[in-house]
Amino acid sequence: MINVLIIQGVLDEEPISTTTKSNKLLVNFTLRVPNGGDMDFETHEQKDAFFKMVAWGEVAKSLTEYPLGSHLLIQAKLTQSVWVKNGEELKSNKILVTSSSVVNTDMELFDNTKVADDDEYDPFATSN
């Protein structure tokens, strides 16, 4: 199965970084995708969309170094965690970043791409 997402957006909020009990860097952040949301039926303009993302290791570290307002090109995959709480099965979907690059508004890549190794993230780790 193919599970690849390519998303271009803007880093509008500071990423939130934590270190797991197994000493792995975990970063959660929201990427704003201009004109990626629903249509506003009154103004006939497309709204921005906001996607919650997670990154591990070197990719996570690079995301904490990008300045706010950076235009990012993200490669990611969809992941799902499943757990049972009070006898009820719960699920959480996440966008897991596998590489990130800063781009300018003309979509030219700068030489700063960070790519995650497959063993760099731990989907079952918990933050401190």
Structure, explained:
The chain is mostly beta strands and 128 residues long. A hairpin with a 5-residue loop joins strand 2 and strand 3. The protein has a single domain (5-110), classed as OB fold (Dihydrolipoamide Acetyltransferase, E2P), CATH 2.40.50. The chain has one helix and nine strands; from the N terminus they run E-E-E-E-E-E-H-E-E-E. The strands form two sheets. The chain has a five-stranded mixed beta barrel with strand order 1-3-6-8-7. The longest helix is centred in the middle third of the chain and has 9 residues, at 57-65. It is 7% helix and 51% strand.
Give short descriptive properties of this protein.
128 residues, mainly beta, OB fold (Dihydrolipoamide Acetyltransferase, E2P), five-stranded mixed barrel, two-stranded antiparallel ribbon, 51% strand, disordered C terminus
